[in-house]
Design brief:
mainly alpha; Serine Threonine Protein Phosphatase 5, Tetratricopeptide repeat; 77% helix
Length: 512
């Protein structure tokens, strides 16, 4: 027994000595300050050591990133998060590094896994929903909000963040009913600046333009210094044709905030819509002079040129970008769009071919955009077979979003390619059956094409959504009630449904 006791004592002494040696190595060689001797000595404390070691690796990863040693930073961040999975900043750093390394799927997995530890942390949740929205995973944002909102404190910043993110995601998918439900889910969110601005956009998209403008004006009067609110108001004023008010508000903004480029771009739009080409040219030159060296301002000017099809201004802007050594890829892509909008279809086709050859990385990233632009250009040239091939390629792309498809459909319709626009809108509605904006536009296009039975199906879907545009319903009512569809039973059923919907909306046209 004495021998056994002596041997046991030696074993304990050896274990303690080994633990001391490990502790010295960990504390003084690896400099893991948060580790105590008991964390090494006691097996029940080894998890604490593991987490402390992970935190230390994450601190090292941050230092490597600051020194622009990204490979080392990535390796340390990955090892650190594996050891300390509850380290918020480490997980966010790892996600950023994975995105930079073009491993977005792994970044997504790391962020979603982190919700197990940080589901109630607004900083972390904001990073997650921002990432998901950038990846166009709107349904995932909505699902996340539905899962986390019940546990969030009512009226807290965390609850507001979740509800507003889900409402925004719903708007992007055209699901206006769901967007309003989320806005009302948290006290005072609907009355906040963000909530009221989103509400005005909802009314606009539903077709209630005057009501939306009233709301935009009210928000602008309460937040006069807010650039986003001003931009939204002026943009919607222009769309409604209220050019004098749009110009006045842009000039007021320019005088009050001369360092902002936004009001200058707004003035370009108002001058162009008023047919004042000379003023457009002078203001564009002044902008280039006043914002020399500002890459964001130059991109904003290029975007304006693309939207209006101003080839000369785009050429001038591309030249300035090259002279300043700016990244040419985005300007080259905007140049293609400019040529399509300007109806220089042959030039657009040649520019697309040149872009694909010069920017292989951009070609992979923007393949869908390029295919849609090439389809539009070929339709403009009358090469319908080739255009159909590129349109099919675009419609077959993964991760398409209904709002992007709607924009492409509007471009095709503007070129007179109404059949192609209808195909694009049908795809949008297939992807998102509740997308009210796409469904409304599809009804408009099918009215133009006299697509009776399809119109009957889609208009009945539209009236099942909350507050569809009465103007659209009246047009559909006239078409469905015409002699063209006198013997179509689906059209008769749809006509009655439209009349009933107009009555519910209080529209007098339903009685005529």
């Amino acid at each position: 027994m004495r021998v056994l006791g002596w041997l046991g004592g030696l074993a304990v002494a050896g274990y303690v000595a080994a633990a001391l040696a490990v502790f010295g190595f960990v504390r003084y060689v690896r400099h893991v300050e948060a580790v105590g001797f008991t964390d090494i000595l006691l097996p029940s404390r080894w998890d604490h050591y593991r987490v402390a070691r992970g935190d230390q690796q994450i601190a090292e990863a941050k230092r490597f990133v600051e020194e622009r040693k990204f490979t080392e930073g990535f390796l340390y961040a990955r090892a650190g998060v594996a050891s300390a999975p509850g380290n918020r900043d480490g997980r966010l750093l790892l996600a950023d590094l994975l995105v930079a390394a073009r491993q977005s799927d792994n970044a997504r997995r790391a962020l979603l896994d982190g919700l197990h530890y940080h589901a109630s942390d607004p900083v972390y949740v904001k990073a997650v929903v921002t990432f998901l929205l950038q990846r166009q995973e709107d349904a995932q944002v909505v699902a996340l909000a539905r899962r986390l909102l019940p546990a969030a404190v009512s009226g807290s910043d965390h609850a507001r963040l979740l509800a507003f993110a889900a409402s925004t995601a719903s708007v992007l998918r055209g699901n206006y009913d769901q967007a309003e439900d989320f806005l009302r889910a948290v006290p005072r969110l609907a009355d906040s600046r963000e909530g009221r601005l989103l509400s005005a956009k909802l009314e606009w998209d539903r077709g209630y333009r005057e009501l939306a403008l009233v709301q935009f004006r009210q928000v602008a009067s309460e937040w006069p210094q807010d650039a986003e609110v001003h931009r939204e108001l002026v943009g919607h004023l222009r769309q409604q044709g209220l050019m004098d008010e749009a110009r006045r508000r842009s000039l007021e903004r320019q005088i009050a905030f001369p360092e902002e480029v936004g009001p200058r771009i707004e003035l370009l739009h108002t001058y162009r819509q008023a047919g004042e080409a000379g003023r457009v040219a002078r203001e564009a030159e002044a902008l280039l002079r006043d914002f020399a060296g500002d890459s964001a301002a130059l991109l904003a000017l290029a975007d304006f040129a693309a939207n209006v099809g101003d080839v000369a201004l785009m050429r001038r802007t591309v030249g300035e970008a090259a002279a300043r050594g700016l990244e040419p890829d985005p300007f080259a892509l905007l140049r293609v769009e400019t040529l399509v909008v300007a109806r220089d279809f042959q030039g657009a086709v040649e520019a697309i071919r040149g872009y694909r050859a010069e920017f292989p990385a951009g070609e992979r990233t923007h393949a869908g955009v390029l295919d849609s632009l090439q389809a539009a250009a070929l339709l403009g040239l009358g090469e319908d077979s080739a255009a159909t091939m590129f349109l099919n390629s675009f419609l077959g792309q993964a991760d398409l979003r209904a709002d992007n498809l709607l924009a492409v459909a509007n471009r095709l319709a503007g070129l007179g390619a109404v059949d192609a626009a209808r195909r694009t809108l049908v795809r949008a509605v297939e992807l998102d059956p509740l997308n009210q904006a796409a469904l409304t536009r599809l009804v408009e296009v099918e009215v133009m094409l006299n697509a009776g039975d399809d119109l009957a199906v889609h208009v009945q879907r539209l009236i099942r959504l909350r507050r569809p545009s009465p103007d659209i319903l009246r047009v559909a009512q006239l078409k469905l009630g015409s002699d063209l569809f006198l013997f179509s039973e689906p059209c008769k059923v749809a006509l009655e449904a439209v009349r009933a919907a107009l009555v519910r909306l209080g529209d007098g046209g339903a009685r005529r």
